[in-house]
Write a structure and sequence with these properties.
It contains three helices and two strands; from the N terminus they run αβαβα. The chain is mainly α and 81 residues long. The protein has a two-stranded parallel ribbon.
């Protein structure tokens, strides 16, 4: 399965549910095949520049999760003392 076919399947599922996004945001790498598919469906897309984690929602979610786990671990350590 290519990235294009995987994306098309996701797009079709989301469209059936009525919540398909009009704007897709990708990391700094995006294949020509995927770009062509986005243009075929008349959808907008943006590429996040490398090392700009604030604009990348996935990177922000991972960072938030790590920070939350760190704080939770600190509380558990304090309670166990």
């Amino acid at each position: 399965m290519t990235i294009k076919t995987a994306w098309e399947e996701i797009q079709l599922i989301l469209a059936k549910l009525g919540c398909a996004p009009n704007l897709w945001i990708f990391d700094n790498e995006c294949s020509k095949e995927l770009k062509a598919a986005l243009l075929k469906y008349d959808l907008d897309f943006q590429r996040v520049p490398p090392h700009i984690h604030r604009q990348n929602a996935a990177e922000r979610a991972i960072r938030t999760f790590k920070i939350t786990c760190w704080h939770l671990l600190q509380h558990v350590i304090q309670i166990s003392r």
